[in-house]
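It is worth pausing here to work through a concrete case rather than discussing structure prediction in the abstract. The textbook approach is simple: state the sequence, then state the predicted structure, then interpret. We follow exactly that order.
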Amino acid sequence: VKERIFTPLGMTHSFIRESFTQIVPDLTYSYQDEGDDTFYYNPLNYALYGPTSVNTCASDLCKVLDEYIHPNVIDPEIIELMKKPVLLSNGKTAEYCGGLITHKLHGLDVFGHGGADAAYRGEIICIPEKELELVLISNTTTYAMSKLDDKAACIVLGLPDSTEPAVPEHENAP
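Step two, the predicted structure:
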């Protein structure tokens, strides 16, 4: 991964943790938000090799997003394959593509990917037509990143917020 992805893209702060005992300088811990100003440590399950072993930062994730918009290291055909929606048996397309999620925001193509483990949350999106890249990362469960990415894009682009609230509002609730 270092040789084929991190180094060619200039991702100098990204690495694969070789063991859960490995010390990671400047690591931010994961905290569960109870919603009442109470937080508690929410450790990763290090038994899952893969997502819990990749350590990165926002600036390195931006280098990946740069590559989605202006492929220089990764073959452009691979990038296009990653953006191509999956065709379902009923003839409709799924939002999930070859590693990326796609949707429209005010008619603009949005590509991205998100994830969560313990209380860590992350969401990256890019809107190639506007050359916009957003990286949202958190070490608490406080915010639904998948809702915030489109909100942030609307703010940056000066578009009306078209996202729905995380919890529907009810009038005259019992």
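Step three, interpretation. Helices lie at 2-9, 58-69, 76-83, 145-157. The chain has a mean pLDDT of 85.
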